[in-house]
């Protein structure tokens, strides 16, 4: 157990439905702190780079189109075991398979429009945080 930082993104389907506050409350209720946050529009180029690992997947084109289709809220969450804890709060990729009470189960619309992104490892968390935030923007 250790204090970690992880990257979270509230995706376009969730910002469109005005769910930023209720999703943030889920993180805070679970003991994670939002130590940096900004609303932005990710360009197509940026999202292609962010999801580079999925380039060969059938859903890559559609995923990139969707993630650049509207505003997102990028945030750094901090707390005990933040990477795994956030994945737990988010739930499984497909909302239909996500545990009751998780963000994706409660707010996800489909396997693609699944409300939130969360880093999947400590190593990727560091890379993804750097993708969106400078050191000066992260206030612990
Ligand atoms: P994760 O977000 O739970 O880590 P990944 O496998 O890393 O899931 O996929 C990244 C994102 O790509 C998902 O959150 C979802 O938006 C989208 N995605 C994943 N699998 C599919 C699929 O089979 N069809 C359409 N979109 C998908
Ligand atoms: Mg992933």
The gist of it:
The chain is α+β, with helices and mostly antiparallel strands.
Account of the protein in words:
By secondary structure, the protein is of the alpha+beta class. Helices cover 39% and strands 20% of the residues. The protein has seven helices and four strands, in the order βααβααβααβα. It has a four-stranded antiparallel sheet with strand order 2-3-1-4. It is globular. Inosine-5'-diphosphate binds next to loops.
Number of continuous helical runs: 7
User: Could you tell me the mean pLDDT?
Assistant: 98
Bound molecules: inosine-5'-diphosphate, magnesium ion
Helix content: 25-40%
Measured between the Cα atoms of the first and last residue, the distance is: 18 Å
Shape: globular
Largest sheet: 4 strands, antiparallel
User: What structural category characterises the helix and strand content?
Assistant: alpha+beta
Q: In sequence order, what are the helices and strands, one letter per element?
A: EHHEHHEHHEH
What's the count of strands? 4
Q: What gyration radius follows from the Cα positions, in whole Å?
A: 14 Å
Supply database-style keywords.
single chain; 140 residues; alpha+beta; four-stranded antiparallel sheet; 4 strands; 39% helix; 20% strand; globular; binds inosine-5'-diphosphate; binds magnesium ion
